[in-house]
Amino acid sequence: MTAEKRLMVALALLAFALPQGAVARADAGSDDPTRLVPTLSGWHAGEAPRAFGPENLFEYINGAAEAYLSYDFRALAVGDYVADASKAAVTAEIYDMGTPLNAFGIYGAERFSESRFIDVGSQGYAEDGVLNFLHGRYYVKLLCFDCEGDGSGTLAGFARAFIALTPGEPKGFPPLLRTLPRRGLVANSEKYILRNVLGFAFLHDGYLAAYRDGDASYDGFLVEAASAEEAEAMRTRYLNFQTRNGWTKTDIEGGIRLQGRSGDEQYLGSQGRFFFGLIRGRGISREAGSAFLGDLRGAAAAL
């Protein structure tokens, strides 16, 4: 997509008003997830809305189901639409992830920092015929087929219709993301990992982001434990694993520096119930690594 077309997508989404005739299919108090599939004037159902749960999600997204289940996926509602006056068709996939945090987790796993981001819900990203966005505990994916132009106006209408059905959902990203330092942060690289953070079963509830600062590159992370004791146990187990695998340990002010045989560096620290650090460090000075730990420690101490 050219820069001009991406700009047109953004403007269309920002300007598009909620279409008349958007209503819920079922009572808002119902447990039926298809209640969240809106109806819109000028469109009719291609088939009845469908619902999927954890036990049969693979029937709809076989290859990707495990990623959603790893964030405690609750339910999926799928609506298929056909335009009354053209051959255009839209598919709406509404993933109920149970909590806004888990919804951000799967959303963050699928977005890219270079995606074209749109102001819809908490955040969305769009390409030709596609609009995906985060809204409270929901991750919504819209696909347009044979739509006019790039489909941006059509998909914006569906997005606004869904948001109108769920007005009480919170907007914004997980608050703990604000503890990650701002300097060098790669915009929209933040992620939340519920389990197996950094590939370790004993690490859970991790917040990660990519950094570029001059010639240096690295990833920052913050893991939230249930207690200070668990956070220290996490740090100790992680450190022991790395030193057993050839990383050289150096005590520095406020933390530990690890140096690998390939030239990568890591900086580790803990504060209260948080274990945090910097991994995959390349071209970073000892002073910069120590300062990164200091910023994380200060932010964690304020929580």
Task: Please describe what this structure looks like.
There is one protein chain. With 303 residues, the protein is of the alpha+beta class. The protein has 2 domains: 3-165, Protein Transport Mog1p, Chain A; 175-301, 3-Layer(aba) Sandwich (Protein Transport Mog1p, Chain A). 25% of the residues lie in helices and 32% in strands. Strands 1-2-3-7-6-5-4 form a 7-stranded antiparallel beta sheet. A 7-stranded antiparallel beta sheet has the order 8-9-10-14-13-12-11, sandwiched between helices. Strand 2 and strand 3 form a beta hairpin. Helix 1 packs parallel to helix 4. The relative contact order is 0.10.
Q: Calculate the mean pLDDT score and round it.
A: 90
Tell me the total number of β-strands. Answer: 14
Number of helical stretches of at least 4 residues: 6
Strand order of the largest sheet: 1-2-3-7-6-5-4
Secondary structure class reads: alpha+beta
Helix-residue proportion: 25-40%
Total discrete domains: 2
Largest sheet: 7 strands, antiparallel
Name of the CATH class of the largest domain: Alpha Beta
CATH architecture of the largest domain: 3-Layer(aba) Sandwich
Question: Outline of this structure?
Answer:
The chain contains six helices and 14 strands.
Salient structural properties:
303 residues, Protein Transport Mog1p, Chain A, 2 domains, 6 helices, 14 strands
